[in-house]
Design brief:
Layout (H helix, E strand, L loop, with lengths): L1 E8 L4 H12 L4 E7 L4 E6 L6 H10 L3 E2 L7 H34 L20 H18 L1 H12 L5 H24 L11 H25 L1 H9 L3 E7 L5 E7 L8 E4 L8 E6 L2 E4 L1 H4 L5 E3 L4 E2 L4 E2 L4 E7 L5 H14 L6 H30 L11 H15 L2 H7 L1 H13 L2 E3 L2 H7 L4 E5 H5 L5 E7 L16 H5 L9 H12 L5 H12 L7 E7 L3 E6 L2 E6 L1 H6 L5 H12 L3 E7 L2 E9 L6 H10 L3 E5 L4 H11 L3 E3 L7 H10 L4 E5 L5 H6 L2 E5 L4 H6 L2 E3 L6 H34 L2 H4 L7 H20 L7 H9 L1
Parallel strand pairs: 15-22, 15-24, 22-23, 24-25, 25-26
Antiparallel strand pairs: 1-3, 1-4, 2-3, 5-6, 5-7, 7-13, 8-11, 8-13, 9-10, 9-12, 14-26, 16-21, 17-18, 18-19, 19-20, 20-21
């Protein structure tokens, strides 16, 4: 299956997005389709061996919508297109409101008996009814032209058997205008009483109010995508490339960033932004990478170090070779993640999607049945129309009210707008949420499993202690070549192992290891100036340690489990190992030629935020679990420092996912937080996988949420953001369903049936316009969301 995102034009409400989705899913070879009204994009999974993307595009066009050119659907072009759309809508609203105000004034002032307002005598309805009626007609025409899209789109969709919100407006206002035109003809024929049956102002004001709602809606939708705009604004527009001048020299040339290709040598001066990702080839500087890492301190860069687009060169001149450009840069990948997340759907939106597909036809049916029922009841004398209205006017008013009060937009925007704002807000704070489903599931989390190394701790362990057994030796240890003449004479009594010698042997064996503990031992030896020897037959033993041969000496370095597996008698080291473990240090037992030699202890300090993050999570009634391959005592010591009660220690990498599965079997909605390659299976198994941004690419690809700042205080922030978002979505859905559930019956005359008021179509239109705006405004409240770190700092102040 191949996945592609299409930019769809012409969608105005949830009924439209449902129609497009249905049309795409009918195409053979399409596996899945998700159409998002807020982003105006369709994400399609299809089998390219069965169907071409052109066939899918044709299905969208046949449904009555357009597929935008990919060149016009870029973020910048899309922004310009939407800005133009907002400007056009405001212009149309101003035209409609200007003429609508005059039209309403002319229609209502003659009816006011309490006080007198200025009014042209030539338009007095009782004296000059035809001029009065013609004036209203002339005033409503510009309004209809301003709202012409309601008619062109609305009636086109009716002909395609897929009516939408525009169709409801078109039918309702057309009914009012046609009925008014009929009465205008009656006035021209001499029936001056028909002047009281003109509804031009109803149609005009309805269109003006809906254009106002559409304008506010477009502005609000634009604000939901501000996070993407800010991310795009981080990248520079040009790059200074060093080119061959054709005469054996070089020349600097400034070119658009889109023209940079891999392999180009780029010059970056102090204070300038780095345009693309690459590797430094010359120069030294400090680079501000806060945009990616969240760290305020600049990172030193020299030849061979990576640099990333949109980061800022602080104080030196750098020349680097472009490696990743365009959509491959780290910033572009972040933007794509956010865009994909904003275009995704949350499971909570499924009911609204189903309802939206049938909403407009049902509303049309209700309007028609209500109008006919009231007409029949009034004609039969079962009920009296309001004073001053004929039976036809009475039933027509109800018919129009039902059509214009119904609002499928509120249903369609309730979920996607909240997801757009939430994922954008997360991205602003270094939290990349990969989709609506992950965002929704996160609020249900009641158990969080933290990997220890690199997640709760810094992941940069250091050698703290070296313990050597007095009787330890290795007959073939590297230092045997340096023995004195007296020692050489006594081959049966090799020298006792020193601490440096043990560290040197262990580091030589660990040189091929990628494990942080092994690297710590290597760094410890190098910091002491000890030379390392070549290791042979190196083998990593996941979850236990390593084995290797150093100058013919068989070396084992690992945990207690490894010593037990190889039947190494380490009882003499057990007390020391337990004591080190109680201090939160990891004892690495060293055996030479099958005999215990000593311990090299390594400690990995806790991150500054670990304790606070665990405390906050526990305050949210979330069970916190730590999982590690460390021995139980070391794990317990680290857990004690952070306030974690439940510890899963001595867990092999391949067993982490099984432990997560056990927690899920207990009924827990589980999140796994990790950073390493060996965490990837557990991240996938968990209900929500959360990866630390500084970790392995595999971990980040396997995760549902990526914490770019590598700060686990962002874990409670992500959960709080999810809870706040779901609360907003539920409020939006409640309002959208509640508004339509109450508004449609009131418009249909239920209150009038029991002696209450009859809803004026103008007020119905105003309520409909404001319903969409209220949903969007509610979603925009998420922009005020504060991170856990910000709340903590505010509390301190």
């Amino acid at each position: 299956m191949q996945t592609q995102t299409l930019a769809i034009g012409g969608m105005t409400c949830a009924a439209c997005s449902a129609r497009v989705e249905k049309a795409i899913l009918k195409v053979g070879g399409v596996g899945n389709a998700s159409v998002n009204l807020a982003t105006e994009k369709a994400t399609v999974s299809y089998d390219p061996s069965v169907v071409r993307i052109t066939a899918i595009k044709e299905a969208v066009v046949k449904a009555g919508y357009t597929v935008l050119d990919p060149r016009e659907a870029t973020t910048d072009k899309d922004r310009l297109r939407k800005e133009k759309e907002v400007k056009t809508l405001w212009t149309k609203f101003i035209v409609a409101a200007s003429f609508g105000f005059v039209l309403l004034y002319i229609a209502m002032v003659p009816m006011i008996k309490v006080f007198t307002l200025p009014f042209p005598k030539v338009l007095a309805p009782m004296n000059f009814p035809l001029l009065y009626a013609l004036a209203e007609l002339l005033l409503v025409i510009p309004i209809i032209i301003a709202g012409n899209k309601f008619y062109t789109v609305g009636f086109k969709n009716i002909f395609h058997a897929s009516p939408n919100m525009d169709s409801l407006i078109a039918i309702g206002t057309s009914a009012a205008v046609i009925y008014s035109c009929y009465n205008l003809v009656q006035i021209a024929r001499g029936d001056f009483n028909a002047v009281e049956s003109l509804y031009f102002e109803t149609a005009g004001v309805i269109i003006a109010l809906i254009l106002l709602g559409k304008s506010l809606e477009a502005v609000s939708k634009g604000r939901t995508g501000e996070a993407i705009k800010r991310l795009m604004g981080l990248a520079p527009k040009t790059a200074t490339v060093i080119m061959d001048d054709g005469a054996g020299g070089s020349v600097e040339k400034e070119i658009p960033i889109d023209a940079v290709v891999p392999g180009d040598i780029i010059l970056v001066r102090p204070g300038a932004k780095i345009p693309v990702d690459g590797i430094v080839v010359d120069g030294q500087s400090a680079v501000d990478e806060a945009m990616l890492s969240g760290e305020s301190m600049p990172v030193d860069k020299k030849a061979g170090d990576p640099v990333y687009g949109a980061t800022i060169n602080a104080n030196g001149v750098l020349r680097f070779r472009a490696e990743k450009v365009g959509g491959d840069t780290a910033l572009a990948q972040i933007i794509k993640l956010v865009e994909d997340a904003q275009g995704s759907k949350a499971p909570i939106a499924q009911l609204a999607d189903v309802v939206s597909g049938y909403f407009v036809p049902i509303v049309c049916a209700i309007a028609l049945v209500s109008g006919i029922a009231w007409f029949a009841a009034a004609s039969a004398g079962l009920i009296n129309p309001p004073e001053g209205k004929t039976v036809l006017e009475f039933s027509l008013s109800i018919f129009i009210s039902v059509l214009v009060i119904a609002c499928p937009c509120a249903l369609g925007l309730a979920t996607p707008t909240a997801i757009m704002v939430a994922t954008g807000k997360g991205a602003e704070n270094g939290i990349l949420i990969k989709g609506g489903e992950a965002l929704e599931t996160t609020h249900k989390i009641n158990t969080i499993v933290f990997d220890k190394t690199g997640t709760l701790t810094e992941g940069k362990p250091e050698v703290t202690d070296i313990i050597v057994l007095d009787e330890a030796d290795c007959a073939r240890k590297p230092e045997a070549a340096n023995e004195s003449a007296d020692e050489s004479a006594n081959k049966n009594a090799p020298p006792a192992l020193s601490k440096d010698m043990l560290l040197q042997i262990a580091a030589s064996a660990e040189k091929g290891s990628e494990h942080p503990l092994g690297q710590a031992i290597v760094n410890g030896a190098q910091n002491k100036g000890l030379s390392l020897y070549n290791a042979e037959a190196f083998q990593a033993l996941p979850g236990r340690g390593i084995e290797a041969a150093v100058n013919g000496c068989a070396v084992l370095a690992g945990n207690r489990k490894l010593m037990e597996e190889r039947n190494i008698p380490f009882a003499a080291l057990e007390t020391a190992g337990d004591s080190l473990a109680d201090e939160g240090k990891t004892p690495m037992y060293i055996a030479l030629d099958g005999k215990p030699a000593g311990i090299v202890a390594v400690a990995d300090v806790l991150k500054n935020s670990s304790k606070d993050a665990v405390r906050i999570l526990r305050g949210m009634d979330i069970d916190v679990v730590m999982i590690t391959g460390d021995n139980k005592k070391t794990a317990a010591a680290i857990a004690g420092q952070t306030g974690i009660d439940r510890v899963l220690a001595e867990v092999l990498p391949q067993d982490k996912s099984a432990e997560v599965k056990k927690l899920q079997a207990e009924g827990s909605v589980t999140a796994m937080v990790g950073d390493g390659i060996n965490d990837a299976p557990a991240l996938v198994q968990a209900d929500v996988g959360i990866a630390i941004g500084s970790g392995a690419d595999v971990a980040m690809e396997s995760a549902d949420i990526v914490l770019m700042h590598s700060d686990i205080m962002d874990v409670p922030t992500a959960i709080n953001l999810s809870k706040r978002t779901i609360r907003i979505i539920k409020q939006n859905l409640f309002w959208a369903f509640g508004y339509n559930s109450l508004g449609i019956p009131i418009a249909a005359g239920v209150l009038y049936l029991f002696g209450g008021p009859l809803l004026n179509p103008i007020f119905a239109a105003a309520a409909m316009s404001m319903s969409s705006v209220s949903v969007l405004t509610n979603a925009l409240r998420l922009k005020r969301f504060k991170t856990a770190k910000n709340r903590k700092n505010s509390a301190k102040k």
